Amino acid sequence: MKVVFIGVGNMGGPMAVNLHHSGQEVIAVDLSEVLREQMRAEGLATAESPLDVCEGAGAVVTMLPHDQAVESVYIQSGLLDHLEEGTLIIDCSTISPSQAKRLHEHGEQAGLAVLDAPVSGGVAGAKAGTLSFICGGTNEAFERAGPILKGMGSNVFRAGNAGAGQIVKIVNNMLLAIQMVGTAEALSFGVDNGIDPKVLSDIMKVSSGQNWCLDKYNPWPDVMTGVPSSNDYQGGFLVKLMQKDLGLAAQLSRASGSSTPMGGLAMSLYDAYARQSDNNANLDFSAIQRLFRGEL
Amino acid sequence: MKVVFIGVGNMGGPMAVNLHHSGQEVIAVDLSEVLREQMRAEGLATAESPLDVCEGAGAVVTMLPHDQAVESVYIQSGLLDHLEEGTLIIDCSTISPSQAKRLHEHGEQAGLAVLDAPVSGGVAGAKAGTLSFICGGTNEAFERAGPILKGMGSNVFRAGNAGAGQIVKIVNNMLLAIQMVGTAEALSFGVDNGIDPKVLSDIMKVSSGQNWCLDKYNPWPDVMTGVPSSNDYQGGFLVKLMQKDLGLAAQLSRASGSSTPMGGLAMSLYDAYARQSDNNANLDFSAIQRLFRGEL
Amino acid sequence: MKVVFIGVGNMGGPMAVNLHHSGQEVIAVDLSEVLREQMRAEGLATAESPLDVCEGAGAVVTMLPHDQAVESVYIQSGLLDHLEEGTLIIDCSTISPSQAKRLHEHGEQAGLAVLDAPVSGGVAGAKAGTLSFICGGTNEAFERAGPILKGMGSNVFRAGNAGAGQIVKIVNNMLLAIQMVGTAEALSFGVDNGIDPKVLSDIMKVSSGQNWCLDKYNPWPDVMTGVPSSNDYQGGFLVKLMQKDLGLAAQLSRASGSSTPMGGLAMSLYDAYARQSDNNANLDFSAIQRLFRGEL
Amino acid sequence: MKVVFIGVGNMGGPMAVNLHHSGQEVIAVDLSEVLREQMRAEGLATAESPLDVCEGAGAVVTMLPHDQAVESVYIQSGLLDHLEEGTLIIDCSTISPSQAKRLHEHGEQAGLAVLDAPVSGGVAGAKAGTLSFICGGTNEAFERAGPILKGMGSNVFRAGNAGAGQIVKIVNNMLLAIQMVGTAEALSFGVDNGIDPKVLSDIMKVSSGQNWCLDKYNPWPDVMTGVPSSNDYQGGFLVKLMQKDLGLAAQLSRASGSSTPMGGLAMSLYDAYARQSDNNANLDFSAIQRLFRGEL
Questions:
Q1: Is residue B35 within a helix (H) or strand (E), and if so which, with residue range?
Q2: CA A264 to chain centre
Q3: What CATH architecture is D167-293?
Q4: Which residue among D185, D199, D257 places its CB closest to the CB of C261?
Q5: Which residue among A7, A194, B223, B243 is least crowded, i.e. fewest CB within 10 A of its CB?
Q6: Where are the domain boundaries for CATH 1.10.1040.10 in chain B?
Q7: Could you tell me which chain C residue has the CA closest to the CA of B265?
Q8: Which of B267, B275, B280 to mutate to test the interface with D (most CBs of D within 10 A)?
Q9: DSSP, res A98
């Protein structure tokens, strides 16, 4: 199937390449000639504007940085009106549920099938083709998107109707932030009282304190190998991206009037940490451990 | 080995019975004749005071409700001085690390081997013999205690030296409280935005939001069977016991000057919830879900 | 001077009447015929649309409920282009700073002088003519607005340039929320420990715990007369309005990346309180006292 | 009247001197010969032990650093039993209410009149004789203490019965911490959004955001003269002393089961700030402003 893939940066680039290797006919679209050149080097066709190549496309996949980019690419550009009826729209961007719902509405008015499908797994998952997709839309759109999503990732979930993918991603990442800050606080508390961080982690991992951070992403340096905390908090999921997701959670909680005290506090602690040094926002989000250690 | 087991209430009773069945010669000690009678019905010898039966004991095991009871049973009573040199003391109570260290000091002065060994697993784990013991003390004391602890539980961890068992239990339970409140907040937030709580739980369980609560103890009613949330929050680990453990964490954080913002907030939310209705303190701690649902 | 006053509801109505009594030629504009009739009963001229009456106006004053209403009345309607060059725009609505800045930009492009001038003092202050205005805009616009603002209130502050009025109001109200929740928490804490709430309030009022709430708006029932807490928390500044203002603070903190842990927590506690009973959102914001007392 | 004043350090020293100048016959007691020498230089009689000089004393005044010192000086030493019946005990230390109540009980058993009378006003107030005393005890003891307290301070409050002075001081200081952190957070938030800190402070001081910090102790550098924030946060009320008082609040809230989310969060933020640099604990408590500015 001809798939127009818009936005081939750090995340979108490897996703488009994997999709190409899965057997789809992918055309990579980006305003950046540098990125287009990288895609051509991987064997993909490219274009500067989706309007030039969307004829006959069976699906459009987007990986864009924020609400405004989604608004611009799909709605302000008139792209939705240029697509053939029934074309499948898969937006993998992490954006606000309200923007996602707006895309669903405009797409459905144009006779298209729309799926919001934000991902988790980061750049590493994008490269390895092991991303998870959390989808919102009709069951039919979800079924149709299956072969495309499986070409880029390993787990595909349907969270509900329009916008549900964004909502569940936001809620999951808020809980992740709570657990990361809580785990960092707990490890620091134990070490302050003379406990070895590895012993403490090992016991909590098989006790009621167990969580994903302790299992896969321990924030204390050198407790675990191959994680950002053991590499000066380089790489991984950056503090500034967690701030963005917690900001989406804050915005969503205003719309629904939900009380989110733990998520709100985690956000404020990330905000305070990011402020302490110019570089902190670009560290992995497990670097919040340093806030509790009194390190910059 | 002759083992004097002091404190045979809800937790200590089934522990003593299991220890008896594991082949040890257990003498159950309690001030309550009712509890002693229950122990005799299970085939155990009993006594009202440990001083009457401690001669020749190879080990003393205690399961007591608070610091003051530990102080009274071991130190004020003079029991430590009545035990033969080398006797093994295993205190399974959940108490402050400072009281635990005090017991170690007095015990060691009397030539005894002391282990602090608080448990997790609750009354159900005590009955099933599947408790976890988190121990603090010398490696030698830990090794000697193995056969006794294995007679009452399935997991035995050494957290470090004197008091380390209490510290790790406190830290673990603080993290558990953070995760339970965070999970309840996240589920409520998702439901407010139209997501099904079971779908949300299922996705987060295999994502970075995964934690013990989602896996074993979902706080939303009827997402999981056989947990307190699906039984009107009856039974389980009571709110008031979580308040006690969070209070021990607050006390310990004062001694070490540790910053525990998430744990402190979780405690305040439990305190506010317990205040809302006379019965709330006696519900399972997953009932904090109700605070976010606006239910009493 | 001819002044077009748009939005004459609970707040705007008495403001327009006071402005009329101060000697200005006020034309009250509202979509509601009921409200227009009330204005005519007070001797004001009225109109349904500002476009019908804006010719020759020296100033336009608006009191509108949210961003979208300001966007609609000024920008989408084309009103700005119908006003004579140099007309003074005074927007007294409490809206987001970004919307306020947008109004400034559009107004200045049309050759108008714009002031954002949100108020504090509530309906009582609006009726008594004792409102405070916190203004953002050029010094010239601020000077020109003086006579009009003094016709409706007693205190007029210039906070800075475009949007500064909204920003300072938001920051002030966030601090107010922190202090109200903090005061309620402190009073409850003291009473729990046997202290009389009036004695406690009297001592803190002349100590370092002093704040506006203790002085003017004690949240504990019957400590002070003539305040909502002594009248079942009826009237005053409603919980839902504080939630709105804290939502604006949350939104603004996302734009600036500011860490606002205390403000965020106050918001979450108001959100939790509002959820507990259908009526809570319509009580005065000092009713947060009840959250700490375990009352619905 | 002969008054034995025990503990003449930074606070107690100037208090004893002022009391001496007010006409009382003060004997300054301290273990430190250096401090006794300073007192003799001011014209006071001195002693190393209160037991040597308590005969004929009408009152004993103490200014000690913590619970254990109060326990030691009054109870373990046997001092209470050496005093004549009816002697007035005034303990100005800031200690736990439970320790204060213990002193009341032991004192009353010995036929003495006891008052807990913690102070506010700091070293500056001690020197200037402008301290405030917040007292707990019988009305009779309070009346008798009046002339002595007036010799050292300007405000004297009776908060209630035994321990009430300590409780009200703790509650007041918890609210102070909430307001200081809240004020620092609000100022930083405004400045992040382009508002001048002095303009913001001036507006909030006359609005509903008003509090003691804005009036007397602005945490933003150079908004106010003669306060620690304008002197690199030197002097004043140290971070470590606020941590001590917030620790007493945390301990008291455990005893009463009170929910103190804002106070708990303020404590955690002070704890985190104190950890960031070796010197932070010795800065004035308004230095929490730096946490929000991303400064060490």
A1: helix B33-41
A2: 20
A3: Orthogonal Bundle (1.10)
A4: D185
A5: A194
A6: 167-293
A7: C265
A8: B267
A9: H
Q: Provide the pLDDT for residue A296.
A: 72
Whole-complex ipTM: 0.95
Contacts of A272 in chain D (CB under 8 A): 291-292, 294
Using CB atoms, list chains with 3+ pairs below 8 Å to chain B.
A, C, D
Q: D90 has which bridge partners?
A: D61, D115
Whether pLDDT at B170 is above 80: yes
Q: How far apart are CA C48 and CA C54, in angstroms?
A: 12
Ranges under pLDDT 50 in chain A: none
User: Does the beta-carbon distance from A257 to C271 stay under 8 Å?
Assistant: yes
Task: Verify whether the Cβ–Cβ distance D265 to B264 is below 8 Å.
Answer: yes
User: For residue B121, what pLDDT is reported?
Assistant: 87
Q: Do D172 and C292 touch (CB under 8 A)?
A: no
Mean pLDDT of chain C: 97
Question: Is the full-model pTM beyond 0.90?
Answer: yes
Dist CA C165 CA A87 (whole Å): 48
CATH 3.40.50.720 residue ranges of chain B are 2-161
Please determine, for residue C296, whether its predicted confidence score (pLDDT) is greater than 80.
Answer: no
Residue C196 sits at φ, ψ, to 5 deg, of: -70, 130
User: CB–CB of C253 and A271 under 8 A?
Assistant: yes
CA distance D7 to C116: 58
- Find out whether C15 and C152 touch, Cβ atoms under 8 Å: yes
pLDDT in tens, A219-237: 999 999 999 999 999 988 9
Give contacts of B265 with chain D, Cβ < 8 Å. 261, 264-265
Contact A275 D292 (CB under 8 A): yes
- Closest by CA to C171, choosing from C86, C85, C260, is C260
For B2-161, CATH number out of 3.40.190.10, 3.30.470.20, 3.10.310.10, 3.40.50.720 equals: 3.40.50.720
Residue C244: φ, ψ to 5°:
-60, -45
Which DSSP string corresponds to chain C?
-EEEEE--STTHHHHHHHHHHTT-EEEEE-S-HHHHHHHHHTT-EEES-GGGT-TT-SEEEE--SSHHHHIIIIIIT-HHHHSPTT-EEEE-S---HHHHHHHHHHHHHTT-EEEE--EESHHHHHHHT-EEEEEES-HHHHHHHHHHHHTTEEEEEEEESTTHHHHHHHHHHHHHHHHHHHHHHHHHHHHHTT--HHHHHHHHHTSTT-BHHHHH---STTSSSSSGGGGTT-SSSBHHHHHHHHHHHHHHHHHHT---HHHHHHHHHHHHHHHTSTTGGGSBGGGGHHHHHT--
Tell me if residue D58 falls in helix, strand or coil.
coil
| Whether the Cβ atoms of residue A276 and residue B206 lie closer than 8 Å to each other | no
Instruction: Tell me the per-residue pLDDT of A187-208, one tens digit each, with 9 for 90 and over.
Output: 999 999 999 999 999 999 999 9
Q: How confident is the model at residue D121 (pLDDT cuts 50, 70, 90)?
A: confident
Q: Which of D2, D169, D216, D240 is catalytic?
A: D169
Closest among D131, D120, D122 to D168, alpha carbons compared: D120
Task: Name every residue in A having a CB less than 8 A away from some CB of D.
Answer: 261, 265, 272, 275-277, 291-294, 296
Contacts B–D by Cβ distance under 8 A: 54
Query: Do the chains contact at D160 and C185, CB–CB below 8 Å?
Result: no
In this predicted structure, what is the pLDDT of residue D235?
Answer: 84
The residue with tokens 């949350």 is C250
Chains A & B: contacts with CB separation below 8 Å: 221
Q: Give the residue from chain B lying closest to C276, CA to CA.
A: B294
Q: What's the gap in Å between the CA of D296 and the closest CA on chain A?
A: 8
Contact C260 A271 (CB under 8 A): yes
| pLDDT at D296 (0 to 100) | 72
Of C168, C178, C269, the CB nearest to D190: C168
Structure tokens at C195: 């202290």
Output the pLDDT for position B122: 87
